Amino acid sequence: xxxxxxxxxxxxxxxxxxxxxxxxxxxxxxxxxxxxxGISSNSSLWRIISGLFVAQRLTNFDVVVSNEYFIAFGINLxxxxxxxxxxxxxWGLNQSRRLLDYPGLKGIVSWVFNRxxxxxxxxxxxxxxxxxxxxxxxxxxxxxxxxxxxxxxTPSLFSKKKSEYVCMIGRNNRDIETFCEGLKGTxxxxxxxxxxxxxxxxxxxxxxxxxxxxxLDFNTCLDCIRHSFANVILLKDDLRGAGHITLVSAMFxxxxxxxxxxxxxxxxFIHEEHGLMIPIGSAHAFRSALDKLHKNPELKQKMGHxxxxxALKNFTNNAIAEHFVxxxxxxxxxx
Length: 335
What we know:
Elements: E1 8-15, E2 32-39, H1 44-52, E3 63-66, H2 69-82, E4 87-91, H3 106-113, E5 118-121, H4 124-134, E6 141-143, E7 165-169, H5 176-183, E8 189-194, H6 199-207, E9 211-214, H7 218-226, E10 230-233, H8 244-252, E11 257-260, H9 263-266, E12 275-278, H10 283-295, H11 297-314, H12 317-331
Parallel strand pairs: 1-2, 1-3, 3-4, 4-5, 5-6, 7-8, 7-10, 8-9, 10-11, 11-12
Helix pairs in contact: 1-2, 5-10, 8-11
């Protein structure tokens, strides 16, 4: 860790409890003095309002860090309106819901988001997307992997499963239809864990023979991945980010993966070293990839080991802390 920075005061405003990734990282003691503030509301509008009226005097801090699109918008608006010079890093900008790209507001939204001093995305592709959508200066963007320290996992219902299965976890931009179609004739059970579905969606997917679970806790999702034959991330398109959490988790767990050939995932994954990449929307390619892993157990095992080594080197909290200090040192070395 580069310890050339003096201790700086950082306000970290996040969705959730306010406790996240590097805030408690021991390697940053003496470098960063954190004040954390969590915004628990799931409402996009309320997150903007909470960022705008954040209960701290921003001039007391060297840097404000936000971790969510709408919170970042609110904080930027506050900084614009008050003409505050405190630096703002948006860490992990991504699209999880409708962006602020409504007709008639694009100019204002661009003006607000361009108040950010640095915007960190978890894929290079996402930086290109946000730069284009909101006309944000591309030079404001930096790339850093998403990561965390894998927690201990307690057994769940998936620890008791006796048949082989492949899993796909998540809802944002997931191509469940291709997943179901590609599994036909493979003899493998498919498991999908997603957020709430309509009754019609649930019925349709169950008819395809796939096991559906909704809104399971994170521990159960991790347990599902670790007992799976392969983790699968099939995307509907390459126009938004998706899948980084499950991708990184599977790598930590040494589970090979089959993922869509999408730029938002390529920064994390090496084809035929960590698993197999297939064209978006191709059920045939998905079925062929499953067949290849089934016929080559040694290859499957090798991919799992390689994935785990790669994750331990690049995706831990310490690795994230290194990225954070590097960005702060590069951008704000006058502090």
